UniProtKB/TrEMBL annotation:
Protein name as catalogued: D-aspartate ligase
Higher taxonomy: Bacteria, Bacillati, Actinomycetota, Actinomycetes, Micrococcales
TM helices/strands, residue ranges: none
EC number: 6.3.1.12
PANTHER family linked to this entry: D-ALANINE--D-ALANINE LIGASE, D-ALANINE--D-ALANINE LIGASE B
Naturally occurring in which organism (per UniProt): Paeniglutamicibacter sulfureus
One function term, GO molecular function aspect: D-aspartate ligase activity
SUPFAM superfamilies named in the record: Glutathione synthetase ATP-binding domain-like
Length: 422
């Protein structure tokens, strides 16, 4: 595939996962444009597609080399000083957003960048700073202890006393404040998020992370009871003045549990959530945030409150749940950053439609539906109000559809091996 010189703008999307493909599909659906997608390696997600031009670059962990490569894409697709046509630079994962923020000055020669800078990223995404903001604003979050891995080895007695003082019992959840640094680590048994059953397990995990070179902080939290279906999402868009203009909420129905994908949503029902809208808006107003953001939260059955876990400084991996319900996310990028600003005044637009986002075979999905959502999900399926981001009718290459079929069916094997019993 080649990009026509008359195409009015070009999205350049860093990453190659289902979220990166979703963005390329959404730009194609909304504006009939091709996107440049930059995976580290080619996979079935980005191969044989008619909506994107793949430009793989393996050394994405080399910032200088990656910046030079992305600047080269700017020269190729934007022309001298970006004057021929605008380019949007987008990232599919946290490390891409950090890379863009760090190299914004040099990349801005070629690209329009719809993200905040490093200082704003630090305050919003480092979990200890985020929880401090939640505490200041009275937004609920799980009982938390933050442990600094840059210091000496954890003193079990002091750590146990601190956990007791903050009301963090075992089993507890452990996750890194710096997800980018954590992603670069290698040690036996590493996961995105750990559940530890005892003080001994916790101190062993801290030691393993420190020995592997992690010098950030670990967030140790109260494990909120309940299964995947207690998780909720809220995706916001704030304009360049920092005003929240759009929000779409969803309830997670099923999550993936394979070690490398733990916590990724496999099925989401888009639905309104007044609490998430109100609390998320307060956090974003305090941050002066611009662009997209997404909050993860869980409904705590013990007190009926939503506990906020984190702010993601971008569209989520499974953000297609928003577009599928009738609000194509690319419209916000194009109108706000390329065409002078969003239309429709400054009123907050809240998505109201119910829709099922799902990447599982329907038979497998039904096996894991929570009891209180079975009727609603079945109604959405019967009404054909469900979507898979890779199922795009404009894709016509049979090799691509074979990959999609195999990857979808492969969930049976993954769920049998890793997923808790239904």
């Amino acid at each position: 595939m080649q990009i026509n010189e008359n195409q009015p703008f070009v999205p350049v999307i860093l990453g190659g996962d289902i979220g990166a493909y979703s963005l390329a599909r959404e730009f194609h659906e909304q504006y009939d444009v091709l996107s440049v997608v930059v995976p580290s390696v080619m996979t079935g997600i980005t191969e044989h597609s008619r909506v994107l031009v793949p430009r793989p670059f393996a050394r994405q962990d080399d910032p200088a080399a990656f910046a030079a490569f992305v600047s080269g894409l700017g020269r190729e697709f934007g022309g001298t000083n970006g004057a021929k046509r605008p380019l949007l630079l987008l990232g599919a994962a946290d490390q891409h957003i950090r890379f863009i923020a760090t190299h914004a000055q040099e990349l801005a020669e070629w690209f329009t960048i719809p993200y905040v800078g490093n200082a704003e990223l630090d305050r919003a995404t480092e979990k200890d700073a985020f929880y401090e903001l939640c505490r200041d604003l009275g937004v609920s979050y799980p009982a938390t202890v933050v442990h600094d891995c840059a210091g000496a080895s954890a003193d079990p007695v002091a750590l146990e006393a601190e956990l007791a003082a903050e009301g963090v019992p075992f089993p507890a959840i452990v996750k890194p404040s710096d997800g980018v640094a954590w992603g670069a680590l290698e040690f036996a048994g590493k996961k995105k998020v750990h559940t530890v059953a005892s003080l001994a397990e916790l101190t062993e995990l801290i030691a393993n992370a420190s020995n592997a070179g992690y010098a950030g902080t670990l967030v140790i939290q109260d494990l909120i009871p309940g299964d995947d279906s207690g998780m909720h999402l809220a995706t916001f868009f704030s304009d360049r003045s920092g005003k929240v203009r759009f929000v779409s909420c969803g309830r997670v129905i099923v999550e993936e549990h394979a070690p490398g994908a733990l916590g990724n949503s496999a099925a989401i029902v888009t639905q309104p959530n007044e609490t998430a809208v109100a609390e998320g808006s307060r956090l974003l107003d305090a941050l002066g945030w611009t662009g997209f953001s997404m909050f993860d939260m869980k409904l705590d059955p013990r007190d009926g409150t939503y506990k906020f876990f984190e702010l993601n400084p971008r569209l989520g991996r499974n953000h297609f749940y928003i577009t599928a319900a009738g609000h194509n996310v690319t419209r916000f990028y194009v109108e706000e950053y390329l065409r002078g600003g969003l239309s429709g005044g400054a009123e907050l637009e809240v998505a109201e439609n119910f829709h099922l986002y799902n990447i599982l075979p329907l038979r497998l999905l039904r096996r894991y539906l929570p009891g209180d959502m079975k009727n609603e999900v079945e109604e959405l399926i019967s009404a054909k109000r469900y979507s898979h981001p890779l199922y795009y009718k404009k894709e016509t290459n049979p090799r691509r559809w074979f990959y999609i079929l195999v990857s979808t069916v492969n969930h049976y094997r993954k769920f049998k091996r890793h997923h808790p019993a239904s």
